[in-house]
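Dig into my protein:

:::
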Amino acid sequence: PATLVDLKRIAELNDISVDGARLRVGAGATHDEIARHPMVRTHAPLLAAVEERVGNARVRAQGTLGGNVCFAEPRSDVIALLIAVDARLVLRSPAGERDVPAADFVLGPYWTDRAPDELLVRAEIALPCASGTYLKLQLAERPTVGVAAVRTAAARPCRVVVGAAIETPQVFEYDTWDAVDAAEIAAGLEPVSDLAGSAAYKRHVTEVYVRRAVAQTVGHERDE
């Protein structure tokens, strides 16, 4: 290219702060920076826990929230978690600024709602952040399945998000945890057979991990 633009020195893109009742995480913040930041650990500990386990040490040191989300890798832990906690993604272009629910941002594998002239500047999470559990099965470089089970402020507060096993994360909402049917969730998925496992295997491990994630979340809630 004739011109190379480096975004790393734009302070706003690297900022992590609390603004009113929202946690704002800059798109240029690395996974390590997010995982270790005291505001994230205080206000969104589940996000910090997920960021601590993204990829490997090199990926966590160099990879950023914005890069991860905009790449829309189907096995992204980050986008699945952002969907689970109802994060909103803020994009900016010469025409102005707009925000998109994380659940609407990923349109398919490696395909997002970001226009060519837009830059993702930050993710915003309403506080208090949804609490719960994120579990994943990872036998190689990328996870085979990732499951979030969180309690939200929505009308149907018990939310399960399944990622990695399918091309885009899927959301399931229930009135109570007892209503979650792990077998039904797994049976309704359309996983793609690849090096991470066959479609049948992915359905099986999804059922197991949904059951485990819900059980852990219920256990945490009983202890509180």
